[in-house]
From TrEMBL:
Residues 19-363 form the TonB-dependent receptor-like beta-barrel domain. One of its GO terms (molecular function) is siderophore uptake transmembrane transporter activity. This is TonB-dependent heme receptor. It comes from Campylobacter upsaliensis. One of its GO terms (cellular component) is cell outer membrane. Its main location: membrane.
Amino acid sequence: MSTPVYQSGSGFEDTLMGVNFKNKLNYANNSYFVFGYEFAHHDAKRKSVVHYNVNSTMPPNGFSMSHTMTTLMDMDKQSHSFYMLDSHEFNDFFSLSGGTRYEFSLYDTNRNYNSNMMMNMGERPTNTKEFFNTDDTSHNLAFELTPNFTYSNTGKIYAKYERGFISPSPSQLVNKDQTSKSYYSADLDPEIFHTFELGIDDFWWDFYGFNLSVFYTLSKDEISYLGNPHATAGAFWKYYNIDETRRLGAELNLSQSFLDESLILKQGLTYLDAKISKGINDGLRIPYVSKIKALAGVEFAFNPNFSSFVDLTYFSRAKDGGKIDDTTGKMSQNAWIKDYFLSDVGVNYHYKQLQVLAGIRNLFDQKYYTYQNSASNQYLVGNGRNYYVEFKYIF
């Protein structure tokens, strides 16, 4: 007997607010120093409702049950960042830029689980509550160095080294076990990466932009994911760090401007070979990373203050997370996730220091997966058609 499961009433809400104080000092010809402070507050709310009914006419008295499981989650991340950047032109042929950024983050996570079960066999309703709270802090440092070599009035060759980080989002700090259904701390480390890049940037014939770069990135503790928060048998998920990964790739970006730059066409193509380079999964492809990404877009400015855009993006197929052995961490049964297109449209309005952006992401409501475990027949569909409005004010 199959039992239908309903998840109506579930949803999520993400709010990101912040301020960025920045100052720029010009101290020589085409040379400047930038410093500032940025504050960001990320509030992630989740509501998961799973409900099902069981009705049986089996003798002697039959049986019926109603079960509702509700999970409320409120997760916060507060970040304080201090940064500085210096760019100095030594002569007409050589310039050097470099900068650093320090981030201090505070995390606070609260989860409330309630299970309400009612049966018609004379038993009292059972109500089970479970609470889980955790907090954490992180300190991270990034820096970069970029020498530029100018070979013409419009063209330059550059080399770049960046030591960066990706700190966990608030929702990534808590895992839920598939067997016991209990919450536990993910104990995640921030991802630290080192990127080496070589590129050429030019603007030809007063309308044709050209940028080509090749890069190599070595990452430690890259954050990955497995699980299904919408599983009918009860949500489960796990965020974990991958020992070491490496990415080798190339990126080409083109643009053409017409009608006094009122009309701009854009094309982009990225090739990325991403593999795990250390540990028990050495040599396997990094889950959920597409090898090919292609972009085509158009921007049109109706006047100096108001413009619109259309972007089409293609992502090639990628490997899913497969199964992971709880004891060894070995991945297996990694299957392919199908490729997909996304279409975005929007408008951009400027008035003095105010900027307003609004648009529609995934205009055609394309179905694609952000999580897949084909071995267990589990899938998580990505965001469908959604709308956004952003406001920016420059002081």
